[in-house]
Design goal:
Distance between the termini: 37 Å
Strand content: over 45%
Shape: globular
Radius of gyration: 13 Å
Structural class: mainly beta
Helix content: under 10%
Length: 114
C-alpha cells in the first residue's frame, strides 16, 4: 500500500489550499481516511478523519475551516483548508486504516505566511 499526498505549498494567511492523497495497492475496503499534521518539536496531531460510514472528526482548531472528503472509487481523500492561519503551518500526512492495519503517506509541507 502506498499513499501519495499532494497539494501542499506556500499560502498567505486567510488563503486556501486543497490537499489530496491517493492510495494505491489497496485490495480491501479502506475503513478510515484522515489527515494528521506535525511541526518540529511537537507530536503529530489528528486534523481530520472520515470513516467509511460517513462519520467525520475534526480537531477543534480546524472546525469550520477545514473539510475532509473522499472519493471511494478513486481511493482518494481530500482536505479543503480555508481561512488558513499561521499556526496551520506544518507537514501534513495522510493516514488510512484497512482493517487492523494502518498506513502513512510521505507528508506534504503547508506553510502559511502571516
Amino acid at each position: 500500500v502506498q499513499l501519495q499526498a499532494s497539494g501542499g505549498g506556500l499560502v498567505q494567511a486567510a488563503g486556501s489550499l486543497r490537499l489530496s492523497c491517493a492510495a494505491s495497492g489497496v485490495t480491501s475496503s479502506i475503513n478510515v481516511m484522515g489527515w494528521y499534521r506535525q511541526v518540529p518539536g511537537k507530536e503529530r496531531e489528528m486534523v481530520a478523519r472520515l470513516s467509511s460510514n460517513g462519520r467525520t472528526d475534526y480537531a477543534d482548531s480546524v472546525k469550520g475551516r477545514f473539510t475532509i472528503s473522499r472519493d471511494s472509487a478513486r481511493k482518494t481523500v481530500y482536505l479543503q483548508m480555508n481561512s488558513l492561519k499561521f499556526e496551520d503551518t506544518a507537514v501534513y500526512y495522510c493516514h488510512i486504516w484497512i482493517g487492523w492495519r494502518n498506513y502513512w503517506g510521505q507528508g506534504t509541507q503547508v506553510t502559511v505566511s502571516s
